[in-house]
């Protein structure tokens, strides 16, 4: 669970789906990195993630962590975006029977969870079928 200060620090990249692209080899990273693991360079340019992709794999969570108990069961998948970046996130707005490898999905910014009545509301990305 993120601390409030860390969570708020990461919000710009979450809101805008910001990533960075290595100026030397062109690989896109999300979250942004300081050093490219491929070419070891430190020069990046800001880029926006592709907002569409396909499901590579998924699972149904039936026994969730405490903060997600009210959402169970739910689907979580690894999606390869059109720019090659792979993200793990919840897959929503579809029946489990409709999920399949290769299903086209898009990124949306949504509420992830809240920390009780007086806690912070955590927002991030989820995938929905196209």
Q: Could you give the order of the helices and strands?
A: HEEEEEEEE
**Rg:** 16 Å
Please give the count of helices.
1
Mean pLDDT: 87
Share of residues in strands: 35-45%
Question: What would CATH call the architecture?
Answer: Beta Barrel
Structural class: mainly beta
Strand order of the largest sheet: 6-5-4-7-8
The description of the largest β-sheet is: 5 strands, antiparallel
Could you describe the 3D structure shown?
By secondary structure, the chain is mainly beta. It has a single domain (4-129), classed as OB fold (Dihydrolipoamide Acetyltransferase, E2P) (Beta Barrel). It is 10% helix and 43% strand. It contains 1 helix and 8 strands. Strands 6-5-4-7-8 form a 5-stranded antiparallel β-sheet, with helices on one face. β7 and β8 form a beta hairpin. The radius of gyration is 16 Å and the shape is globular. The two termini are 29 Å apart. The model has no long low-confidence stretch (mean pLDDT 87).
Topology:
Elements: H1 4-16, E1 18-22, E2 28-29, E3 44-48, E4 52-61, E5 74-81, E6 86-91, E7 104-114, E8 121-129
Antiparallel strand pairs: 1-2, 1-3, 4-5, 4-7, 5-6, 7-8
List keywords for this structure.
130 residues; mainly beta; OB fold (Dihydrolipoamide Acetyltransferase, E2P); five-stranded antiparallel sheet; 8 strands; 10% helix; globular
Short structural summary:
With 130 residues, the protein is mainly β. It contains one helix and eight strands.
């Amino acid at each position: 669970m993120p601390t409030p200060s860390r969570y708020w620090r990461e919000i710009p990249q979450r809101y805008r789906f910001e990533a960075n692209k290595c100026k030397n080899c062109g690989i896109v990273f999300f979250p942004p990195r300081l050093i490219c693991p491929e070419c070891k360079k430190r020069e990046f340019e800001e880029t926006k993630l592709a907002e569409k992709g396909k499901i590579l794999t998924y699972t149904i969570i039936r026994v969730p962590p405490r903060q997600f108990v009210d959402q169970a069961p739910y689907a979580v998948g690894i999606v390869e975006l059109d720019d090659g970046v792979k993200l793990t996130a919840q897959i929503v707005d579809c029946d489990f029977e409709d999920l399949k490898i290769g299903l086209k999905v898009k990124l949306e910014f949504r509420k992830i969870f809240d920390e009780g009545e007086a806690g912070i509301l955590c927002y991030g990305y989820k995938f929905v079928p196209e």
